[in-house]
Amino acid sequence: MEETHEESSQTQKKCLLCDKGFHFRKKIVCERCLYAFCSDHCYKEIATVEGTKTICDSCYHKFRREKIQEKISEEIELLNHELIRVKDANKRVERELFEKTSELNSIETEFSAYEKATNKRIERHKAELKDDQEKLHSLETKNNFLTETIKPLNEELSALNEKYQDLDSKKEEIVNNTVLLHNVKSSLFEQLFHVRRKIKFCLDYYKADSVLCERCKEALKRSYDERIERPQDEMDESSVSLYETQSVLDSVREMKESLSLLIVEPESEPKCLIT
């Protein structure tokens, strides 16, 4: 085939592309297709494994087309690999998106449930807060009422404390008076004991009555009766006895003074004891 191309190029007298003769143009054989071309259509060079070759425009276009096709194929292969990678990445992203979407849906469901529970707790806390505020208001009202109620009670308590202190001082005074009266009573009983002993040696009511006239007897009896007229339910037995004895002593003492005057002045004219 190459020998045929060489023979045809040697016998060829015109350019294969422009069909012009080689009388005024240089004849160049294409190193790829081995046909003869003029210098206008066979001047492009390409790099091959064997070295640099000069080729015609037709072969150059074919060469360029092959290179472009190879590049396109390489690009297509790269794109296919990229497409596969992108598809794998897309599948992975879709899977991750599905998982994230499922997780997000689960989170949204949990959040919705939590939000509902939180809203219920908030409403319950609001109701409790409102109830506590009402209770607080009621307690404040009661506190104000009790404060107003306690205020006069405190004043009364203060007055009662003052009265208690006054009564306590009076009680102390009464206790002291009671002790004093007890001492006085003891002293009176002691005096009464001595008086009773002396009465035995004195002129008693009956002896005085025997030496008096009728008028003086009546006066003595009336005086004696007046001295012992005292409600006995207000005195104990010892007090009544003491009072009665004292009355007798007073009556007898008056009679003794009158009799003493009669004894001192025996020559004088007898007088009535009442006058």
Provide a descriptive summary of the structure in words.
- With 275 residues, the chain is mainly alpha-helical.
- The chain has three domains: 2-55, no CATH class; 62-165; 202-275, no CATH class.
- 73% of the residues lie in helices and 5% in strands.
- The protein has helices at 2-11, 57-199, 205-210, 214-228, 237-264; strands at 27-29, 36-38, 44-47, 52-55.
- The strands form two sheets. The protein has a two-stranded antiparallel ribbon.
- The longest helix has 143 residues, at 57-199.
- Residues 1-7, 231-240 and 262-275 have low confidence and may be disordered.
Proportion in helices: over 70%
For the largest sheet, list the strands in their spatial order.
1-2
Tell me the span between the first and last alpha carbons. Answer: 210 Å
Q: Which structural class best describes the helix and strand composition?
A: mainly alpha
Major sheet size, sense and barrel closure: 2 strands, antiparallel
Number of domains: 3
Cα radius of gyration in angstroms: 80 Å
The number of distinct helices, counting runs of at least 4 residues, comes to: 5
Number of strands: 4
Listing every helix as H and every strand as E from the N terminus to the C terminus, the arrangement reads HEEEEHHHH
Strand-residue proportion: 5-15%
Low-confidence stretches: 1-7, 231-240, 262-275
Mean pLDDT score: 74
